[in-house]
Amino acid sequence: MNFIKPTRRSIFFDTHATGCHMPSKRASPDPTTLAEGFVDWFRKHGRDYPWRRTRDPYAILVSEVMLQQTQIPTVLDRGYYTRWLEQFPDWQTLAKADENSVLKAWEGLGYYRRARNLQKLAQVILTEHGGTFPEDHAVILDLPGVGPYTAGAVASFAFGQAKPIVDGNVARVLSRIFNDPTPIDSPQGRDLLWKRATELVQATHDPRALNSALMELGQTHCRTGRPDCEACPVRTQCRATEPEALPVKGSRPTLTDVTERVVFVRTASGILLEQETGSRRTGLWKLPALPEPFHDQPPPVLMRSNYGITRYKVTLWVHEAPSGHSAWPESHQIIPHAELAALPMPSPYRRALNALLKEREEGSLAL
Ligand code: SF4
Questions:
Q1: Topology, domain 8-245
Q2: So what's the pLDDT on residue 28?
Q3: I need a labelling partner for 249 at 20 to 30 A (CA). Which of 94, 223, 315, 334 fits?
Q4: Within 10 Å of residue 283's Cβ, how many Cβ atoms?
Q5: Ligand 1 pocket mutation, candidates 33, 38, 169, 176, criterion most atoms within 8 A of CB
Q6: Which of 208-222, 318-332, 345-359 has the highest mean pLDDT?
Q7: Which CATH superfamily is domain 256-366 in?
């Protein structure tokens, strides 16, 4: 699509004092015109992603789950999506896969519950739906781990149904287009967003393109912070007067500082690791926690790093092995060096372990 660059004159007449928009007093945008603008733009300018070339609900759902808390470049450029589909090409393969291999394939993406839920879903598709993903939106919504966003994404992208989706990008786009200051994370704000997304998707014959366009506009022109309104394909429909101030969010939970102490224990046969149980990282391996009795007087520190998870800001301290301590629980095992790479391990520990091993390797080479 060739955008017509607004002249100074057209900017003056088409926009509000903030410089890019029609006055907010205008009536709400017409859903059909707005939907047409989105679909027309997307058909000409939509980005080409592998999950947009398929109608396979499995491949689409994998992309949606991977992208829930991960950026597109990570999923795509670092090969996660392609590798996953090569290793687990369908519901059946994923359902029957060893959990260790599923977690390993997810390593580096974080939020491992997503991988486990995906496998549980595959098992339900196999046992309760004969290996075929259901097309009925209500049945999709009933599947374990599938919420309104994922159900809408698969229903529209795989089956072309007029079902809405609302994620962070869509919420930003809609709250700006409707110039709506209702907090998007309030019950009222959420209801409004879903209602508007529903009206829009029902106003087009191409729900797949409409939903893709909404998401893509939020990633491109209508990005966080300062949007590129001059080049926006739906600018004549947009009612935002101060787009940078939208969307409005309620108070955000503050980050809590957490200290985590682990140990690096190396023996002639390998590295001592702990397999996590009873947490969202169940089944994953990590550097063992520093035993409680050593917390008051911890052994010397080997390295320190920081990472964030949900609402926690974690400082990870890696200590030398506590001298004289050998009573490690059963969940701890010495893992031979050759097997370390194959174990699923959250990124903060993988980075620490690799750094320590490299340091020692270089140290021993230098001797
Ligand atoms: S980029 Fe966003 S705020 Fe700007 S005109 Fe487009 S929809 Fe409105």
A1: Endonuclease III; domain 1 (1.10.340)
A2: 87
A3: 315
A4: 16
A5: 176
A6: 208-222
A7: Nucleoside Triphosphate Pyrophosphohydrolase (3.90.79.10)
